[in-house]
Amino acid sequence: MKMQTLLKAQREQLITNHNENLRIRCDGDGNTIDFKPVVKLFVCVGGNATWLLTEMDPDTGVAFGLCDLGHGTPELGYVSIPQLQTELDWRLERDKWFTADKPLSVYGAEARDARYITA
Known about the structure:
By secondary structure, this protein is α+β, with helices and mostly antiparallel strands. It has helices at 8-27, 81-86, 104-114; strands at 39-43, 50-56, 62-68, 75-80, 92-94.
């Protein structure tokens, strides 16, 4: 049985975070919110890539978060969930046991020091 990549509540929170930071970028002072990751995704077959995601554009499926493709250089950036699943044919899994306890920037600093996502 295939696990659903994002739960409804996770998808809704990713979109809410995206909309809030979009509003800040457009109307505010530009200092976006450093959200806690909403979900941890990973490639379960054929790779060791991991993503901690905080936001997602509902129109494109492009998400923002900490991206680690398994090459020792995790970084903050954007990833197209649909592209990973369709064009690259990567089978994404959601870490159902992951619960964020700190903002994304802290996970990012830890990952850069360790050279991989340690969450």
